[in-house]
Amino acid sequence: MNKDNSTHNNNTSSSLVSVSAATSASQFHTKNAKKVVLFYCTETKSLAEKIAAETDAIELRTISWGKFPDGFPNIFIPNAQGIRGQHVAFLASFSSPAVIFEQIPVIYALPKLFVASFSLVLPFFPTGTSERMEDEGDVATAFTLARLLSNIPISRGGPTSLVIFDIHALQERFYFGDNILPCFESGIPLLKRRLQDLPDSDNISIAFPDDGAWKRFHMQLQHFPTIVCAKVREGDQRIVRIKEGEPKGRHVVIVDDLVQSGGTLIECQKVLASHGAAKISAYVTHGIFPNKSWTRFGHDNGGHPETAFTYFWITDSCPLTVKEVMNKPPFEVLSLASSISTSLQI
């Protein structure tokens, strides 16, 4: 479709590379596609516009996000009666506790407006690294957020559909109750498509920084030579070592679900470079980078894999990070827009 091609070309001309993680939504003929009204929060406006550009079946609608003088949310959904009987979705971003509190009232309100069905798209499930209780008194905030989402009111069409990309711990799918239908998607197909476009695509090896990342992603990347790293204790220090695989002469791409400070990735980079990797790149679905930690990752124009990265791919699941790293090598953003558009047709 011309509209899809135009959008794709525009995205390709910038550092934002939009590729499909599944069947493109453009394959759905408009006359057969499910019409969806898509609302969004302030942070996800750009991603929502890209999703709508994928197909004419998605109509964008705005919400008025205001505040009372005391700072509490003052929210209004214009023309609420106009969405009765329609399939409705909300594109959320839970980047901080404050914005979670702003969006939860909207997420609870939309299904009760006599809509045909309700879908919540939450690309990044933010408390996913707080799922374990290692000592009495630890609070598993991931479970608390899952309970909040599990209590979204049922719409006329049934339970809410929840779309999440690469949730941190797979067991978290069992935190959700019976009143919500979690749909777990992955950004790895975006990476595979991008790797196919590289001039040295026949020299790619995939490295996993730990056994957890290997268990999580190796089945999706089984056609690539694999390197597995592991942290071992030497005295009082924990040092990254190569557990299996050979990086010498290869363009090694480190793959994980998310990055925060980036310490593990940098340690992994150094050990791969010391074993002869020709180039080192990285991919994470969720680039969180608190306190501008993305500045730790320099760009390797060639010949310095021990100190910098050739590419660092992230998705646009964390909109605030995207704004910071856009057009700043080695970072490239692979858009989830087409994948989300397809998910809304399920």
UniProtKB/TrEMBL annotation:
Enzyme class: transferase
The keyword Metal-binding is annotated on this UniProt entry: yes
A molecular function GO annotation: ATP binding
Gene Ontology BP annotations: 5-phosphoribose 1-diphosphate biosynthetic process; purine nucleotide biosynthetic process
Any Gene Ontology CC annotation: cytoplasm
The protein's Enzyme Commission number: 2.7.6.1
Pfam families: Pribosyltran, Pribosyltran_N
Segments forming domain Ribose-phosphate pyrophosphokinase N-terminal: 37-151
Matches recorded under CDD domains: PRTases_typeI (cd06223)
Catalysed conversion reaction: D-ribose 5-phosphate + ATP = 5-phospho-alpha-D-ribose 1-diphosphate + AMP + H(+)
Name of protein: ribose-phosphate diphosphokinase
Species of provenance: Lupinus angustifolius
